[in-house]
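Tokens for chain A. Residues wanted.
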């Protein structure tokens, strides 16, 4: 089976969603947002009233929700049990709870298996750009192109705050910066698949770059590596 897999990892606000979609569009590939999957399963746990302070309670229900991902880079999306959750998964309730849910090994095992199925299904159609935290290390360790996007804490908080203007989750740069720092610490110190850069990933600091610059640089790296 041929097909290209591009792994795009990095913390939130590093610009990886917009860059990943732009790269997928330019190369005619599918696009998978793995963070949306962790958010969707978190939304479902909240709906079900699962005690998110109890990892065993989360683990016991991890196999239940039925997630369906749309991998069109122009209209990516996720449903849980047939419900479109693209709005609510970006809200503060899910954002505040997602680190606790994504730290549970049973949740990760289930979602990683699902991600690997989606990647395999994309290969006959040309391949996929997969964005997340652990795609270069765990989900697709054999991906020929692995990029790790970073940006300064200020740039990340500024970008995410701008994205949230006019939504129910509107916030300030300072609040956003504190929330990101809290989630970064949780995500990078958890026992199961902590956020880390793959040894063979190329680190790209997007702080001084425009979105078009980032896409152009990733496309150049794909051409060089793949
Ligand atoms: O990229 P994002 O902010 O939408 O991700 C939401 C959360 O999901 C983030 O706090 C970490 C977690 N996550 C993860 O653990 N592994 C992934 N591959 C993607 C996201």
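Reply:
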């Amino acid at each position: 089976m041929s097909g290209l897999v591009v792994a795009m990892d990095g913390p939130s606000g590093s610009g990886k969603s917009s860059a990943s979609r732009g790269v997928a569009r330019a190369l005619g590939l599918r696009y998978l947002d793995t963070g949306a999957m962790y958010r969707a399963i978190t939304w479902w746990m909240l709906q079900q009233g699962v005690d998110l302070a109890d990892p065993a309670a989360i683990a016991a229900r991890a196999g239940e929700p039925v997630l369906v991902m749309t991998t069109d880079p122009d209209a990516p999306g996720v449903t849980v049990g047939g419900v479109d959750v693209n709005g609510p998964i970006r809200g503060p309730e899910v954002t505040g709870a997602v680190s606790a849910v994504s730290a549970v090994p049973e949740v990760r095992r289930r979602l990683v298996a699902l991600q690997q199925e989606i990647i395999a299904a994309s290969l006959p159609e040309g391949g996929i750009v997969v964005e997340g935290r652990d795609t270069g290390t765990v989900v697709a360790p054999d991906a020929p192109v692995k990029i790790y996007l970073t940006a300064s804490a200020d740039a990340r908080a500024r970008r995410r705050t701008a994205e949230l203007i006019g939504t129910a989750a509107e916030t300030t740069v300072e609040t956003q910066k504190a929330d990101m720092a809290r989630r970064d610490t949780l995500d990078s110190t958890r026992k199961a698949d902590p956020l880390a850069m793959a040894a063979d990933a190329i680190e790209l600091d997007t702080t001084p770059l425009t979105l078009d610059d980032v896409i152009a640089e990733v496309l150049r790296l794909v051409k060089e590596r793949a």
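The chain is about 50% helix and 15% strand. The domain at 4-225 is CATH 3.40.50.300 (Rossmann fold).
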